[in-house]
Amino acid sequence: MGPQRPVQDFRMSDLRLVVFDVDGTLIDSQDFILAAMKRAFAASGHPEPSRAEVLSIVGLSLDRAVSVLLPDLSPSENTEAVALYKQSFLDLRAEQGGEHNVPMYPGARNALERLHLQDQTLMGVATGKAMRGLDHAYDAHDLRKFFVTSQTADGHPSKPHPSMLHTALNETGVDVTRAIMIGDTEFDIEMGVAAGFATIGVSWGYHPVERIKAAGADIIIDDFSELDTALEQLWG
Predict the structure, then answer these.
(1) Helices 108-116 + 227-235 axis angle, to 10
(2) Matching CATH number, 7-28+103-235, of 3.40.50.1820, 3.90.190.20, 3.30.70.370, 3.40.50.1000
(3) What is the pTM of this model?
(4) Could you tell me the pLDDT band of residue 168, with boundaries at 50, 70 and 90?
(5) Could you tell me if 160 and 183 are in contact, meaning their C-beta atoms sit under 8 angstroms apart?
(6) Is 155 exposed, middle or buried (0-12, 13-18, 19+ CB in 10 A)?
(7) Which of these, 76, 91, 192, 214, could form a disulfide with 181 (CB 3.0-4.6 Å)?
(8) pLDDT one-digit tens code per residue, 98-130
């Protein structure tokens, strides 16, 4: 595991911040998510949601996601369903390797490496995963060294609340006018807009491009090879 760059080495006025979503943006975890959800719903006795329904809630914190899929649950029933889903994730991770068997999207690692070489560019993560899940993803793909701020569902309201991005700004000292959020769902884009970030949507993730556009994405890219140009366009 490589060391993180110390933020204090940079002049604050020069810093730029790029915050990435994880599932559906950097890694393609849909099979893992779908399998865990299927197991959880089977254990709870509720009808299994469709693939489209499950992918539509990726990015939300787990309690919020369950409430969208099962809106008629009481608070105690929601808590029980959340616990079943968490256990399903843990069981699948133990049985099948979890994030170690989840691929990164083509070009994702190269894009991170290019940005990491830019002294003025800091990178962070804002994800609906718990920190435990993010740690697994970091370790599975050797990603930890790229990010100086990591915001997860453990300590924040669910997306699209801007709390994760506000904290990322506070931790890095970057001005919001030089900060960009990148994600594959409307929740990522809405969070970025609410925080005052510029936003880039990616077309290869879990929400249709129409939803990302409607959420207010400034730019939508179809491949990681387009990321550098999109960032420079937004930074002007």
Answers:
(1) 40
(2) 3.40.50.1000
(3) 0.89
(4) very high
(5) no
(6) exposed
(7) 192
(8) 677 889 999 999 999 999 999 999 999 999 998
